[in-house]
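Thread: "does anyone have the structure for this chain?"

Original post by V.I.:
We have the sequence but no experimental structure in hand. Need at least a predicted one for the grant figures.
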Amino acid sequence: MEELMLKITAGTRGNRVALAIRDSNGSLVFTDRADLQSSEGRRKAAKAICAGLVAKGYERTPAEVEALLESEWNAHLEAREREAAAESAPAGPADQGPEAVSLRRLAETPDDIRAEAEALLRDPDLIDRITDDIESQGVAGERGLTAALYLVGTSRKLARPLAARVRGPSTSGKSYVVDKVAQLMPPEAVIRATQMSPNALFYMAAGALRHRLIVAGERSRKVTDEAAEATRALREMISAGRLSKLLPVKKGDRLETVLIEQEGPVAFVETTTLGEVFAEDENRCLPLYTDERPEQTRRIITAMAGAYGGESGGGRDPARLRQVHHAAQRMLERRSVVIPFASRIGARLPQERVEIRRAFPALMSMVQAAALLHQFQRAQTDDGCIVATRLDYGVAVTLLTGAMRGLLGGGLSEPAKRFGERLQGWFGQDTFTVQAAARREVHARRSAYSWIAELREAGVVERVSEAAGRTAATYRLTDLDPDRATAFALPSCEEVFGGEPC
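Reply from O.Q.:
Generated one for you, C-alpha cells below.
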C-alpha cells in the first residue's frame, strides 16, 4: 500500500486548517480544509478525506485517516505552542524571568514617577488608594473584588502565590474588572492566556513562568475529559509551583522522549459564569464574585455615562497612573514573609472538613500578599523577612471571609444569599418552580439555576415534588435563616490578638 503523507500547510482560518495529502513522490493527491480541534471534527474530516482519496484510487479506512489527522494535528499544535512560548518569553536571560526586566525598566523610570510610586507604597491607606485608582480607571464599585485581585497579582512574588476564580452572571463585568487590575501590573509580569492547550505551559521558555501572573480569561464551558486534561498542567503549577513531564520531541527524522521541566510559581486569575467547574479545579482557586445588584448596575451605568460625556478618572491621567503602579510593583522586592500569629489563626479554624488543608494556605498567602504590598511599612527580621501584622490579617479577613466559605463548602456565596432573600420576598412559604424563580430574577436570570442549587445544598431551599412529564419539580424555602447558612467566619482580630478590631 503506497504511503501517503499528510501535512497542515497553512495557519488556522477560524477553527479550520488547510490540509494537503501527497504520495510517496511528493505529488499532491488531495487538499481540503477541516476543523481538527475536536475528536468529532477529526472523525468528520476523516470520512470526507476517505471519500476524496477513493476518487483518486487510494483505499484508506476512516480509522487510518483519523489516526493520521490526530498525529499531524498534535504536531501542528506543539509547533504553534513553541512559537507562542518564544514570543511570550520575557526579555533578558531566561533563567531570571521577569525580574531582570523589571529592574531594568525601573532604572529607566523617570524620577517623578518613582517618587510618586514610593509615596503610594508608604501611604497608610494604601489599599484604599489602590481601589480609588482602579475606580478612576472606570471600574464602578467592586472595591472588595478589585482589592483582592490586586493582592492576587502582587502575590506572584511569593513562594506560594494565590489563584482566584471570579464568578458572576454574563455581562456582569468580570473580564473588565480583571483586565483593569491586570493593567496595573507591570507588562513583563503578566501572561494573558485566553486559551490554553494541554502542553502549552511545557513549551514556554525556561524560567518564563516564574513569579508571573497568568490571566486566563473566561473559563471554557466544556466539561469533557479533553477540557479537564487541558487544565491539568495548570492545576499542577498552581499546587506544586513547578511542572515535570516526559514528552516526545521530533529531532530530525525521529522522535526522542525528553524530560521537560518548567519552574514556577505563578499567580492565576480566570473568570466564569459556571456555578460549578471541574471538581479537581474547584478548590484550587479562591472564589470571588461580582456584584449583581441593581445599585451596582446603576453605578456602572453612571460611570459609563460619565465616560461618554468626557469625564475621566477624577482628573487623573490613566497612562501616568499605570506608570506609577508599574513602578510601585517593580519596587516591591521578592521577600519571604513570616506570620508570627499563624498558629493562633490555625487553632481557631474548623477542623471537621478536609478542605481546610487547602483553604488555610490560601488564607496565609493572602496575609503574606498584604504584608508584601506594605513592605515599606513593615518591620523585617535580621535575615530580611517581612513580618506580617494584625493589619495584614485584617485585610485578609475583610476580603476572604466569603471566599473561605466557598473553599470549605460550608456556606452560601453572597450572590446566592441575596437571591435567597429575593425568593423570600417573592414566594414566602409558597412553593415555586425553578422556571418561575428565574422569570422573577431580573438581575441575572441565567444564574438563578445555579443559585437555587447552592441554596438547596446549604439547606435553605428544599424540593417538595419531583418533575413528572411536563410538570416541573417544585421547591420552597425552609425555616433555615440564610444568615445561619453563611455563619462561617474567619477568626476575628479580637479573637486572634485581643483588644481592638483591626
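V.I.: this helps a lot. DSSP finds 20 helices and 14 strands in the chain.
O.Q.: and Residues 335-408 form one domain.
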